[in-house]
């Protein structure tokens, strides 16, 4: 049996992103979304969730250690002098080394704060992943798993993807390099994952599709889908007002609208039916 979870990342980043994600949810094509606990538009996202007309959509925590302002106070390593996270390159460099007890303490503190904050909203949290995949780095993965176990979150993303769907020469060099890097550290994380009380989907897709999702690529993905549960990471949305600024404003670009249009293409729904692929959300219970 082939089962597919289409998960939209960055819910709460801004209202334009939220609007696009919920268009895809209401259309029945996005079955899951991950929330930024420190997102500027989190309140708007929570309002939309509470008024959601479609049952069976899962929501998770999109752990963030790199962008915006943390939820917990007095961080000294994960933040700069302004009290904000260090952004992607510096955070990734920081998280590549494990064994620093002071860093470990701050990671536990902030991950716990983000999970508890979302749980306190009353919405069900059934999966955990990371903004820019910060949760699978050597310094953070075991903490992410322990936090998941502590709070009964049954699913954790392992963004391990070995190859793109398209010809390699059609993928920008920078994207190939980034996807290979994330795939490598995710494979290492999967080894540590064994024996824990949480689980991950059998397969993952989306690293090589960042900013490139189109109907032909999406249809090709569906044709190549393997048996088991596959998580497809997507980033749909509407382009935000270019005059607005904020920690996530650079992410709400026309690429988000192209992803949304690809997901809403009627050929996708037809292919799911023809290929006998079950579109599912994250199960609340373990297999």
Structure description:
With 287 residues, this protein is of the alpha/beta class. Helices cover 38% and strands 14% of the residues. Strands 1, 2, 3, 4, 5, 6, 7 and 8 form an eight-stranded parallel β-sheet that branches. Strand 6, helix 7 and strand 7 form a beta-alpha-beta unit. The mean pLDDT is 93.
Gyration radius over CA: 18 Å
In the CATH hierarchy, the architecture is: Alpha-Beta Barrel
Rounded average pLDDT = 93
Q: What is the CA-CA span between the terminal residues?
A: 14 Å
Structural class: alpha/beta
**How does the overall form come out from the CA principal axes?**
globular
Give the SSE string: EHEHEHHEHEHEHEHHE
| Estimated share of beta-strand residues | 5-15%
Would you count the extended β strands for me?
A: 8
CATH homologous superfamily grouping: Glycoside hydrolase/deacetylase
Helix content range: 25-40%
How many helices? The count is 9
CATH topology: TIM Barrel
Query: Can you tell me the number of structural domains?
Result: 1
Low-confidence stretches at least 5 residues in length (pLDDT < 50)?
none
Q: Characterize the largest beta sheet: strand count, sense, and whether it forms a barrel.
A: 8 strands, parallel
**CATH domain class:** Alpha Beta
What does the secondary structure layout of this molecule look like, with pairings?
Layout: E1 2-11, H1 15-26, E2 32-35, H2 42-50, E3 58-63, H3 88-95, H4 101-119, E4 127-130, H5 141-150, E5 155-156, H6 173-193, E6 203-205, H7 215-224, E7 228-234, H8 254-264, H9 266-274, E8 277-279
Parallel strand pairs: 1-2, 1-7, 1-8, 2-3, 3-4, 4-5, 6-7
Helix pairs in contact: 1-8, 7-9
